[in-house]
Amino acid sequence: MSDTTLPMIGAKAASTIRIVPVILSGGTGSRLWPLSRASYPKQLWSLVGSRTMLQETARRGVGAMFDAPIVICNNDHRFLIAEQLREAGIENARIVLEPAGRNSAPAIAAAALLAAESDPDAVLWIMAADAVITRPETLEQLLPAAAAAAQRGHIVVFGMQPTRPETGYGYIEAGKPLSRLPEASMVAGFIEKPDAATAAELVASGKYMWNSGMFVFTARTLLKEMETHAPVVLAPVRQAVERRTSDLIFQRLDPASFLSTPDISFDYAVMEHTDQAAVIAGDFGWTDIGSWDALWDIGEKDADGNVTQGHVCLESVHGSYVHSDEILTAVVGVDDVVVVATRDAVLVTQRSRAQDVKKIVARLQAQGRKEAEAHNRCYRPWGFYESLIQDTRFQVKRIVVMPGEKLSLQKHYHRAEHWVVVSGVALVTRNAEQITVHENESIYLPQECTHRMENPGRIPLVLIEIQTGSYLGEDDIVRFEDTYNRT
Amino acid sequence: MSDTTLPMIGAKAASTIRIVPVILSGGTGSRLWPLSRASYPKQLWSLVGSRTMLQETARRGVGAMFDAPIVICNNDHRFLIAEQLREAGIENARIVLEPAGRNSAPAIAAAALLAAESDPDAVLWIMAADAVITRPETLEQLLPAAAAAAQRGHIVVFGMQPTRPETGYGYIEAGKPLSRLPEASMVAGFIEKPDAATAAELVASGKYMWNSGMFVFTARTLLKEMETHAPVVLAPVRQAVERRTSDLIFQRLDPASFLSTPDISFDYAVMEHTDQAAVIAGDFGWTDIGSWDALWDIGEKDADGNVTQGHVCLESVHGSYVHSDEILTAVVGVDDVVVVATRDAVLVTQRSRAQDVKKIVARLQAQGRKEAEAHNRCYRPWGFYESLIQDTRFQVKRIVVMPGEKLSLQKHYHRAEHWVVVSGVALVTRNAEQITVHENESIYLPQECTHRMENPGRIPLVLIEIQTGSYLGEDDIVRFEDTYNRT
User: Fold this and answer.
1) Which of A28, A223, A375, B299 is the 20 to 30 Å CA partner of B466?
2) Which residues belong to any copy of the Mannose-6-phosphate isomerase type II C-terminal domain (chains A, B) (predicted)?
3) Does any domain span residue A8?
4) B395: domain range?
5) Alpha-carbon distance A358 to A268, whole Å?
6) Ordered mean pLDDT values, 10 residues apiece, chain B (487 residues)
7) Residues of A in contact with B324 (CB under 8 A)
8) Angstroms from B366 CA to nearest CA on chain A
9) By CA distance, what is A351's nearest residue in B?
């Protein structure tokens, strides 16, 4: 690799460069089970600080330097992502939906194709939604140089100054600095996740950086390099973008085209082949939140080196990460463990074995256990529900409907429902009637009645639903009309 | 100690001796938290086999050799114990209620005083409700000799052949065999819980047995020895027995008298002082279920030496005990741990630190955490209830009422209640009305209405109660009438 390419200074001077943030939010984070599950993955949780990792990532791309962001995510997460972006004050995102994850190369290709539609020279900044950056200001200072290198035709990767011989990351060797842009160097080589001895050598040499998975390039460069090195990825993604459909505020990639794309990372598909790879190094406090031990690494430790969150009680415990949503979790006389308790699943592991959590998740999936993929709380565009108890002939749910939202008009063949409003107000459609149900009032919905629930008020509507019947599956539902296009 | 006492052959020959089983069920078993809690302690759980430890213990005293048993327990557990005994087919027990636990010496004194009322020479067999005996037939074969020794005026303790150098038990040294009763020996000495080195020596010597805490004596002998060695225990207990009251099927010891008794074990109060102590040794498979490691010890192990119960998934785990009521519990890459998950509390500890669980419980008690003492499910004489969700202004409960049972007639100042019957049938009193509520029907009980729920049917009544109001504490209740004397 060399810097022989002539500088391709774009139409805009570096000082006025505008960048399109691209947020990849397609992962399911199974190593962070039981908190992270396919139905509500890690980037949507606030594991560090008060914002979720998705929100933190998206906020990094807010400011005068940035155009509207592109967020690429799974179709199933669209309402969650839209709500989290809205909550974080980001109203202009283009939310692009994948029918299923195909790793980073197809997602990045889709972002470049979409950006190129309005400006083939657009500068894109690719960020994964599941990393923590503790010094974002340092990163921001590196961005103009990255954009300048991008405009010369480079694909820039941010290299993070290593702080320990981590075996879970890829490493980058920096080569010759770019002429007239000494902040950036050509990439001399990539090293995949090394073993412990190699990692120690790499860090000791001082010549290697962690591959942060954050890239900066122009749409034009990226598409040209993909055409050369990964045409089997680019062609179907191009078709998926061309055939995309709009759904409310979302852009849905054509499922058949997108699913024919190989599952491949951007590093494998492009970075290890292109001779345009450049690196800009810095100490911006990047950590990939790949497994529970990463959260222990970056967490604030007590005198015994423990990181705790939630209802936790420790006795003679050292070097451990203990997290509990609501169940009281007591740990006695163990060292270097991870304990995570959620309402329906508990994980206990040695911290050094945190990578193996995915094995358990795979086994649970093979056994068809719902806890492998879904949480007890199910998010919907109108709010959420959770099962409080389920028996053979009855089920009790808490349902929360956000102000102004409404469920679909529906009926059930096998179950009747009692609704008791415990907070807020409900406007209920029951066959031809419309009934307002206030706090501390109830309504009965017999089997096969057509019904709908809606929150006409200004505060969340909370109601308790008691279902009775011989079959209580979620698939006993006939939807007649739905605000969120789910019929 | 010597065997100089002349044989005191009683009125009955050994072959026709009848024995009064006495079951001590006063403990709270805090080392088996979070399953065992003061409100529902370990002896009431089926931790080994399908019967509870109380039921297993009580069944040992059923047969031609035995009179009606005496069960001594905490006042708070009376309905649970009565129900478990009924379930185990034991209808003739005398259930004696302590206002609070005062250790074994007062409880044993109370049993002897009660038995002496009908027969001062009654032979009593004292058993703790929280031990497991895997070879009860061996124990039964030793009973006639124990009864014969008891009739000669001895206080006999069963000594268990040690199988390992256990530091958690007391040891007994056997002395000279009794004349004409070689199965029994005088006790040469007691050794309290030894350190590991001493325990190893004791076991290697072959001369020491574990103190099983099971005793056989006549009421007359016991009361005489207590008069001599523990008059400060006997006097208040005698008063508590004399002033006892009957309550339904229970005998309630006079609380003020009983509470003035010192908290002291029978070993300290009597056995270490009397010169009538004798021991009968055997290998009857006795284990005190004092802490979680005992359950691992006696449990059936998989190929990796793990004992599991419930919804458990293990990956690279060895020598561990993992128990889960209902929450899926996954353990990865740890050895020799105990993991116990209940609906509202999780425990993780090194197996060797299982004794320290009581420290955590003490801390939780000091913090006023309800999980330290009470379970989410609360048992009542009419059935049970459990909170499914609690918020500031509402609470949802599942209530189960057994056939023929009824709750008290009551009212609440601060909350209204919606009841939805999901199984069975309810007869509801609401002020002057009596209303039958069938499955899939509901009824509303406004604040301050006088109400009562009763199950007139043949199957358990299950209903979902939704409470709304500004104060939802259990103490917002005015009871007008109660079948179970709780007004």
Assistant:
1) A375
2) 367-482
3) no
4) 377-481
5) 22
6) 44 68 93 94 91 96 95 95 95 96 97 97 97 94 96 97 91 95 96 94 94 98 98 98 94 97 96 97 94 92 97 96 95 97 96 92 94 91 93 95 95 96 96 96 96 96 96 92 83
7) 346
8) 12
9) B333
